[in-house]
Amino acid sequence: xxxxxxxxxxxxxxxxxxxxxxxxxxxxxxxxxxxxxxxxxxxxxxxxxxxxxxxxxxxxxxxxxxxxxxxxxxxxxxxxxxxxxxxxxxxxxxxxxxxxxxxxxxxxxxxxxxxxxxxxxxxxxxxxxxxxxxxxxxxxxxxxxxxxx
Length: 149
Description:
The chain is of the alpha+beta class and 149 residues long. It has a single domain, classed as Nuclear Transport Factor 2, Chain: A, CATH 3.10.450. The protein has helices at 3-19, 45-58, 123-129, 137-142, and strands at 30-36, 63-72, 75-85, 98-110, 113-121. Strand 2 (63-72) and strand 3 (75-85) form a beta hairpin. It starts with a helix and ends in a 7-residue tail after the last helix.
């Protein structure tokens, strides 16, 4: 398959799976032996569907916007903006706060289907925007978050 075809497959994963919650569409886009490598996610396609369902329950208005996509042979790199409002359970009760974060992904393809994925969402920015990071007294007064070592 061509690099352009692989980019179309990944675009369909984003639009159908993540933005619309159409999990049935994912079956044709992933290889049966698909492997997930992102920390904290389940390792196969059924697990990916469950992880997306959990994400969409926590952020009912969740949306990914593709900012950049580069394909080379069997790999596609993508940079996206993820947005949503935490209206469902995530790391406890909903915060009712909105987030906008950057997500970087790499997918490897075989025969026009995704066989592997590595992802790096900006979890630090997500937790900070949702008010889920511990803050010192000084940070509360100035409005800046501090991380202690």
